[in-house]
């Protein structure tokens, strides 16, 4: 990708901070933009590893001493552990697995829950868990 191709799809507003940082030098601004994109991409790898570690740690903590099968007896569908909203998110994953023909395996469910589910477990309504 070269500078002309980038200018064809990036808005002037998005490019402006890079141009400002480069003191109006278009080539340098473009290099800064590419550097920023590479740094952003690299941080996604770190975020991915963090998410996997976080969800597995939460599952170990909340699932300690509980059966993993059947899923209906695990913490993932326990109304004393999760709010109705949290249980609905788990049920959404179960429905998707059923539709796509995948088994309702505990590790598969843990991996399929979105990051927002895991982040949400640290909301005020879940203080009792921690």
Folded structure, characterized:
By secondary structure, the protein is mainly α. It has 2 domains: 1-45, no CATH class; 65-130, no CATH class. It contains 6 helices and no strands. The protein has helices at residues 3-9, 12-21, 26-63, 84-100, 106-112, 115-120. Helix 2 (12-21) packs across helix 3 (26-63). The relative contact order is 0.08.
Topology, element by element:
Layout: H1 3-9, H2 12-21, H3 26-63, H4 84-100, H5 106-112, H6 115-120
Keywords:
130 residues; mainly alpha; 2 domains; elongated
Summarize the structure.
This protein has 130 residues and is mostly helical.
Work out the strand percent.
under 5%
* Helix and strand pattern: HHHHHH
Output mean pLDDT.
91
Q: How helix-rich are the residues, as a percent range?
A: 55-70%
Total number of β-strand segments? Answer: 0
SSE class: mainly alpha
Low-confidence stretches: none
Q: What's the gyration radius in Å?
A: 22 Å
Shape: elongated
- Summarize the main sheet: none
Q: Supply the number of helical segments.
A: 6
Measured between the Cα atoms of the first and last residue, the distance is 48 Å
Number of domains: 2
């Amino acid at each position: 990708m070269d500078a002309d191709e980038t200018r064809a799809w990036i808005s002037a507003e998005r490019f402006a901070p890079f141009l400002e940082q480069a003191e109006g030098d278009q080539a340098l601004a473009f290099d800064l933009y590419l550097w920023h994109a590479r740094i952003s991409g690299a941080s996604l790898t770190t975020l991915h590893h963090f998410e996997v570690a976080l969800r597995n740690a939460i599952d170990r903590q909340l699932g300690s001493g509980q059966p993993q099968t059947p899923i209906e007896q695990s913490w993932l569908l326990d109304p004393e552990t999760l709010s109705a909203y949290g249980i609905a998110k788990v049920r959404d994953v179960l429905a998707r697995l059923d539709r796509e023909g995948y088994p309702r395996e505990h590790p598969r469910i843990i991996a399929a829950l979105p990051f927002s589910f895991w982040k949400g477990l640290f909301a005020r309504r879940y203080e009792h868990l921690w």
